[in-house]
Structures are given as structure tokens and as C-alpha cells.
Design brief:
The complex is a heterodimer of chains A (287) and B (263). By secondary structure, chain A is an all-alpha fold. Chain A contains twelve helices and two strands; from the N terminus they run αββααααααααααα. The chains are: A mainly alpha (287), B mainly alpha (263). Chain A: Keywords: Cell membrane, Membrane, Transmembrane, Transmembrane helix, Transport.
């Protein structure tokens, strides 16, 4: 009896520690999400939002080309960015881990991710300085006489991809580097002793062992890239809209909360599917 | 031998090229914040501090900066306290469904900020709560709480558990154990969580944009400056923001990580 009451007192105390954080998460994350899901089943009549409890918005999404296109634009951009970032970041992480002397590695890594800490808005803006009609690249090329007319770089998908790649190369360098330095050097030595050449060591030993780092980084890239509004808005212009831009448009210009909520739920479903695929893959890899 | 020298050269060139790519926009940003002229583009006309002067005498920008600092420090403090308590409760006591609780606390990390902001906006709208710096702060705690919880929970090892037990055996009350034994032992990770939260909140745009109305934070103010096109003043304010973030990062590196590395 005595121990039981002691236990309940302990328990009550433990709940006291955890409850505030749980309440915050439920009140400002779970409930808003439920509200948003409910609103996605409503319709907008003039300025009023009427709870209709139907899936009209979801049906509309698949019927209206400009909405559906947002998802495809986002997916295309995200896949392009993820692939290019992995290809650029891997050698960089490898060089920092293998070629840079040990005592400089931490410094080299901090340097490689320093612009990570510029404000997100400012980072996209500074790419605009580089890519604009009268920006650094165009002005330099015209000055050197390489081109006579400035190139159309800003307000294109290329600009969006460059802006994103810049950000995610830094992120992926970090996750891949973490994997590379964890790898015991004996593995590679053993493979080399058994007669593997440099390429075979990389392909059969190093790459498989660093795949988890690549996957974690690629997943983060996917999630952050597909949900981002700032970079496509500043760099991509209004020629083709990514899904977050379409969401903000519903909200800003039309005050269409139900449609914005519907699009957000769809965005979340896509991310969840990516998460399930990634988790399953990582589990398969382990067994 | 030649091939090894060649591969070495190749590595260093690649390193230089990528560092160039990574630093190009920031270098351009900072360089042309000193531009003596109306446009932050080449050719560089000579150095001036005029734009920095304009930034610091711009009332709107300065009040946005103050708002940003207030929201960042406030939301980071709340997130840290809530995160520390939750981590302490879950790491030191046996609670039912603790895996579920941990999952719930981490969950906001996996959701795009845009969706968190939209959810809060629809809810506040529905409840008739008007937007202010408070609503921005609430949103920032939502995104920083998982981070604080995860960092502090991960550093609550078993050897500290024994020290805490010893303190309890010596007659310390639970709150004394927590504030005088656990918190000081875990200070490096608490500080890391705090400073990371401050930088995240300081930089965060979409939540601040959707959940504020009249009092805006710095990124939102910069966003509205972008409408006037390229401008050295925007460069100057961008450079200031960058410097503040780097300073925070340096504090984190020198005070927190250096100290943990030594231990």
C-alpha cells in the first residue's frame, strides 16, 4: 500500500513535468491541424466560410489544371534539387573528411555551412543580386564581351533550383560528412588488401555505408524544399507556381481558407508518403 | 605519383569551387552593401557607410529588429523550459505511453512551417483571436519545442541519474534536484537548445508573416523592402542580420561546444 501511494505520487509529479509541453503541442499543433482538416471540408460562399462537410475542394484540386500543376512543379523542382545537391555535396563532404587535415576539419565544415545562417529571406535576395538582369553575372559577362544581351536568369525555374541547391548542398554536406567520419578506416583498408581498386572500394564499401547519411539528408531536402514558399517566390517569379505559392495565393488574393487548407493537407500527405518510403528503405537496409 | 598529385589538385579545386559557390551570394551581399550609388550591382563605385546609416535611422526597421529580438528570446526561453521539463519527466520517470508522448512532442519537426502557420492562422481566425507578436511567439514555440526537447532528452544519460539519486538520498527535494543538480549538469545542451532556438526564431519568415499584422519581425520587414527591387539598403540590413546570426553561432561554438569537447 505504502509503495503504491508513493508510486502514484511519483507518477503525478512526473506528469507535472511532461504535461505543459504536451498541452502546448496539443493546443497549438494538434488542434490547429484538426481545425485545418475540418476547414478543408468547408466551402467559401462569398466572404463566408460554410461548413459543408464534403470533399468538393479535393475534387476541385484534381480537376483544375492550375492547382494540380502546382504539385507537379513542386515535385519536379524538389527531385531536381535533391539529385543535384547530393551529387555536389558528396565530393565536398568526402574532401573535407579525407583531404583536409584533421585539425582544420571542424573549421572547414563550419565554413561550408556558414551562409546557412543568413536569414532565409536575405539568402534568396542575395541570389537575386547575382542572377538579376543587371546582376553580377550578367553585368560581368556583358562587360567582358562574352554576351551582348543580358541572359534571362532570374524569374526562372533555374534560379529557383540554384537558390535551393545552394541551401541544401550545405545541409547534405553536414549529414554525409557525419557518416563518413563514423566509418572505420579498416573497412576500406581491408577491401583494398583483398584487391579492390579505388573505384571498387568506393562503390562496394564506402557508398553503401554512407547511404543512410545521404538518405537522411535527401529526406530533409525533400521535406524542406517541397514546403518552401520563399525561394520560389523571390527567385522563380510568377511564371510557374510551386504548391506553397499556390497556397499563399489562395490565402492572400482570394482569402479562400478552405482551398488553402485542402492544398496544405495534400502537401502533408505527399511528405508523409515520402517519410514512409524513406523509413521503410532505412529499415530494409538495416536488416 | 603523378595521378595522386593530380587527384590532390582536383580535390582542392573542387573544394575551392564549391566554397566559391557557397560564399558567392553572401560576398556579393556584403560587398554591395557598401556601394556608393543607388544600385547594388557592378561596377562597384566605391565604399560608403551611408546605407548602414539609413538602416540604423529607419524607425520601422529598428522596431522590427526589436520585435524580432523579443520574440526570439521569449519563444526560445519558453521552448527551453517546456522542453527541459518534458525531457526530465520522460527520462527520469516511468510513464505510460512514453513512446507516444515522445512522438507527439517531436511531431511538429516533421511538418512544414507553412502548414503549422496555416493551421494556427485558421484556428486563431475561427476563435476570433487577433494577430500580434504573441501569436508569432506561440508559433515559434511550436517549432522550437521539439528541437529543445530532442536535444536535452538526448543528453540525459544514466550517469547523471546516479548523481541525481545521490542528491535525493542526501535529502534534496525534487525541485532542488532539478534546478541545482540536473540543470547545471545539462547546461551545455540547454544552452545549445536555447541558442539554436534563438537563431531559428530570428530567421523564421513564414510563421511571422502569416501570424502578425501590425508589429512585424525583421524578416517580414525585409520581405516588404524587397518589393522596391534591388537596393543597397536591403543589402545593408541583410548583412547586419547575417552578422548577428554568425555572432550567435560563434558564441555557441566557443562557449558551448568547446566546453563539451574538453570534458
Amino acid at each position: 500500500m505504502a509503495t503504491a501511494s508513493l508510486e502514484t505520487r511519483e507518477n503525478r509529479r512526473a506528469w507535472g513535468f511532461v504535461t505543459p509541453a504536451l498541452l502546448w503541442t496539443v493546443a497549438f499543433f494538434v488542434i490547429p491541424f484538426i481545425v485545418m482538416a475540418a476547414i478543408s471540408l468547408a466551402t467559401r460562399k462569398g466572404r463566408e466560410i460554410v461548413m459543408a462537410w464534403n470533399f468538393d475542394n479535393y475534387i476541385e484540386f484534381f480537376e483544375k489544371a492550375h492547382l494540380l500543376k502546382g504539385l507537379f512543379v513542386s515535385l519536379e523542382i524538389t527531385f531536381t534539387v535533391t539529385i543535384i545537391s547530393v551529387i555536389l555535396a558528396y565530393p565536398l563532404a568526402w574532401i573535407i573528411a579525407e583531404r583536409v587535415p584533421q585539425k582544420w576539419q571542424r573549421m572547414a565544415l563550419i565554413m561550408a555551412i556558414l551562409p546557412f545562417w543568413t536569414s532565409y529571406v536575405v539568402r534568396s535576395y542575395s541570389w537575386l543580386l547575382v542572377l538579376a538582369q543587371n546582376g553580377v553575372i550578367n553585368n560581368t559577362l556583358v562587360y567582358l564581351g562574352v554576351i551582348s544581351e543580358p541572359l534571362e536568369l532570374a524569374s526562372t525555374r533555374t534560379a529557383t533550383v540554384i537558390g535551393f541547391v545552394h541551401f541544401f548542398v550545405m545541409l547534405l554536406t553536414l549529414t554525409i560528412y557525419a557518416n563518413l567520419v563514423q566509418m572505420p578506416p579498416n573497412y576500406r583498408r581491408a577491401a583494398a588488401d583483398l584487391g579492390a581498386n579505388g573505384f571498387q572500394v568506393f562503390w562496394h564499401v564506402v557508398l553503401p555505408l554512407t547511404l543512410p547519411g545521404i538518405m537522411v539528408g535527401a529526406f530533409l531536402t525533400f521535406v524542406l524544399c517541397i514546403g518552401d514558399y520563399i525561394t520560389p517566390q523571390i527567385l522563380g517569379g510568377n511564371n510557374e507556381l510551386a504548391l506553397p505559392q499556390v497556397i499563399m495565393l489562395q490565402l492572400g488574393r482570394r482569402a479562400d481558407f478552405p482551398m488553402a487548407a485542402t492544398l496544405s493537407i495534400i502537401l502533408m500527405v505527399v511528405v508523409t508518403m515520402a517519410y514512409i518510403a524513406c523509413a521503410r528503405w532505412l529499415k530494409m537496409e538495416r536488416t | 605519383m603523378i595521378s595522386s598529385r593530380f587527384s590532390k589538385l582536383l580535390s582542392w579545386s573542387y573544394l575551392a569551387a564549391l566554397y566559391g559557390f557557397i560564399f558567392l551570394p553572401v560576398a556579393v551581399l556584403v560587398l554591395f552593401s557598401f556601394q556608393d550609388g543607388r544600385l547594388p550591382v557592378p561596377p562597384f563605385n566605391g565604399a560608403t557607410l551611408k546605407w548602414y546609416g539609413e538602416v540604423f535611422s529607419d524607425g520601422r526597421l529598428m522596431s522590427a529588429l526589436g520585435n524580432s529580438l523579443m520574440v526570439a528570446l521569449g519563444s526560445a526561453t519558453v521552448a527551453c523550459v517546456l522542453g527541459f521539463c518534458a525531457a526530465y519527466g520522460l527520462a527520469r520517470f516511468v510513464l505510460p505511453a512514453s513512446r507516444l508522448q515522445r512522438g507527439l512532442l517531436i511531431a511538429p519537426m516533421t511538418v512544414s512551417y507553412l502548414i503549422i502557420a496555416l493551421g494556427l492562422l485558421t484556428t486563431f481566425n475561427w476563435l476570433g483571436i487577433s494577430l500580434s507578436l504573441w501569436t508569432v511567439g506561440i508559433g515559434h514555440v511550436v517549432i522550437n519545442l521539439p528541437l529543445c526537447f530532442a536535444i536535452i532528452y538526448a543528453s540525459m544519460g544514466n550517469h547523471q541519474k546516479n548523481i541525481e539519486r545521490a542528491a535525493r538520498d542526501l535529502g534534496a527535494a525534487e525541485w532542488q534536484v532539478m534546478t541545482q543538480v540536473s540543470a547545471p549538469m545539462l547546461m551545455p545542451s540547454i544552452l545549445a537548445a536555447f541558442f539554436l532556438s534563438v537563431t531559428f526564431s530570428w530567421d523564421e519568415f513564414i510563421i511571422a508573416f502569416l501570424l502578425s499584422r501590425f508589429d512585424v519581425t525583421l524578416p517580414v520587414e525585409i520581405w516588404s523592402m524587397l518589393r522596391s527591387g534591388l537596393n543597397p539598403k536591403t543589402n545593408a540590413v541583410g548583412s547586419v542580420v547575417f552578422l548577428v546570426s554568425v555572432a550567435l553561432l560563434l558564441i555557441l561554438e566557443l562557449i558551448v561546444f568547446r566546453r563539451t569537447a574538453k570534458k
